[in-house]
Amino acid sequence: MCGFANMLNAVIILAAALGSVILAFAYAGLLDFITIYLERKVWGRIMQRYGPAHVGYAGLLQLISDFLKYLSKELFSPRRVMKVFYYAIPLVVIAIITVPLILLPFDYVAISGLDGILKLIGIKVDLTKYSISLLMDHYAPGIGLLGYVAIVALSMPLMYVLAWAQSNKYSALAAFRTVLMLVTYEIPFLIAIAAAAILGGVSIYGIVQKQASGWFIFVNPVLALVLFIALLAESERPPFDHPEAEQEIVHGWNIEYGAGEFILLYGLYLYSKAIYAAGLVTLLLLGGWLGPAIPGIPISLSNAIWFTIKLVAVFLVFIWVRASVARPRVDQILEFGWFKLLILSIIALVISIALRAGGVVA
Amino acid sequence: MSTKTEKFVEVRGRWRLSKGASGLVRSLLATAEYFFKSRPTTLYPYEKNKLPEAFRGVLTYDIEKCIGCGACILACPNNCLYRRSGPKTDKNKPGVYIAFEPTHCLFCGLCVDACPPVSGALSHSSVISIVSSKKKVMWEPWEWAAFTELIKEKGWEYDAVDYDRVEPLIKRKAEEIKKRLEEKSTGGKK
């Protein structure tokens, strides 16, 4: 009898967890929509243009119309490419890049948003405990951060294979540049993650709870600088968009692909990476979903709102940097990564250790 | 050749983190400044363009002020202004008005210069042009005056006017103006 009850419980948790995954997908789609729209609008505004202005109110539906247009295009492959890699790798890349949705607490935020809405209309349920990332974090703390690092490190070699499989000179150059970015910025990124973990523990939920007393961006500003730059480089946002480099190697790593794969690789893969980067900055430096309570709204909904606001704000800074900074030469990128960012990251690590050992951070 | 390469190496060697940071901050501030600046361009068909103050748009005609001297007819290089007789509204006015052919006008503004200061009936509006499917559009004085009054009423400033669409409007307004003039008329042909 007892075993049957446990089985039933497990099945309920499984169903709820699957629901949380689907919610996380919907939340990521919403974030994609917001960030791409904002990128087009704000970037245009900085260049004194209008950005999308005609489809829907102020161009809001432009992304959807673009998406439908791209999907209607022909699938095309050049003559001498490796067909298996050419068609399989984009799907593998997309499949892999959706995993951080449950490694980072995107599903927790999405499900707490739903929970808050249900509480607002009067249904009293506690859905947030079914979030799959919370469950994983409870049984294996640290899997979120480590898994995210592993996924990002895995996606770069996949990009190499993808670029190499296209049998194009430009994409080959892009492949080399991808590996260059990986070997240059992975190490400062890992050290910055370690510095954050020293301040708040390996569990993302633990790190966020610890920031209730003070955000880590104020506790350790050097860590904030290093993590921000390293995440920009990891997610290939400009000025670190060397694999793409439209002016030099004309979209390099996805040059041969038609519109269908382009929307997968560029619209979903790159923007997912950028959203994860903004989410990680929010979680590790800006206190995650913590924020002052909004009167009249349940705490779980206000959590979701604060997280979304912070993530979008970080993404706005990404856009700002993209609009301001030119792309450096490849050797400058290497020099900056190895001789400046690495040293800065070690300084950040030392500061973190000193703060923790000195008892400034409990 | 050798000096050039030396210079290149020197510039590369001098690049420092502090310098890079100050450049970064300056560029960030510059883009932020542009973000809050107003745009120089407009979404034209949906927003109206701002034109310079001295813009020479389609001519307008204040029928109440016109003294019928005919100086504009003499000044016009294209001969697109014509004399028309009408009701005599004032003892000092001859009862002569000006007809206008907007499709023939070249927007030179010589008639505006020639118009005597006591009258000041002619001026440029901010209407960019009259667009019509007809080859020739001829405005009797009252129609021209009607167009002048309709610019303000219908908000045609800073815009091109589709004459095919607004022709009935102008005709109707012209009837009103003609009636108004005839009511004011002192009578008699003189």
How would you describe the overall organization of this protein?
Chain B: Keywords: 4Fe-4S, Iron, Iron-sulfur, Metal-binding. Chain B: Pfam families: Fer4_7. Chain B: Residues 65-116 form the 4Fe-4S ferredoxin-type domain. Chain B: One of its GO terms (molecular function) is 4 iron, 4 sulfur cluster binding. Chain B: This is Dehydrogenase. The complex is a heterodimer of chains A (362) and B (190). With 362 residues, chain A is mainly alpha-helical. Chain A has one domain. Chain A has 15 helices and no strands. In chain A, α2 packs across α13, α3 runs antiparallel to α7 and α11 runs antiparallel to α13. Chain A starts with a helix and ends with a helix. The mean pLDDT of chain A is 86. Chain B is an alpha+beta fold and 190 residues long. Chain B has two domains: 2-36; 59-184, 2-Layer Sandwich (Alpha-Beta Plaits). Chain B is built from six helices and six strands; from the N terminus they run ααβαββαββαβα. In chain B, the strands form three sheets. A two-stranded antiparallel ribbon of chain B has the order 1-4. In chain B, β5 (130-131), α5 and β6 form a beta-alpha-beta unit. In chain B, α5 (141-154) crosses α6 (163-184). The relative contact order of chain B is 0.15. The mean pLDDT of chain B is 81. The chains are: A mainly alpha (362), B alpha+beta (190). At the A-B interface, α1, α14 and α15 of A face α2 of B.
